[in-house]
Amino acid sequence: MYVARMVKISLVASAALLATLVAFNNITDYDSNFQFVRHVLMMDTTFPDNKGMWRRLEHPALHHLAYVLIIAWECAVAVVCWIGAVRLWSARLDPRAFNAAKGPAIAGLGLGIGLWFTGFVVIGAEWFLMWQSSSWNGQESAARFALLLGVILLYVSAQDPPEACDK
pTM of the prediction? Predict the structure, then answer.
């Protein structure tokens, strides 16, 4: 079995497990990370008198909606990455089939990058000025997740040469 294919499968499965655990934690301990989302959206721990406060969302229903959408997105990342890992596993013995089976894995990893980079780094940190908060700032962990998923995406996306098989 080609070692690089096994590593790719393992990395996609690891990304799926990460998203599964994040979603599981957010569902089973809803209030902990809900408070994070609520404070970021309210911008109540950003610099005093900053000129971006007009962006804040103060309505609790919007906080819950945003959090539910985040959890749904995490679940989507998990499901699509699990599907990707299973499809890659099923095609592991044939390099051509393996290359053809990468679509769900690539999609799931892209969804994850979209969530943690666009959702948290771009929207949370920049639009809602999360970077100004010393207590509700998740940009480092979000950037770490996005970076890891990006590296995995690059590696998984690389075509496996059809003749590459070790016995």
Answer: 0.91
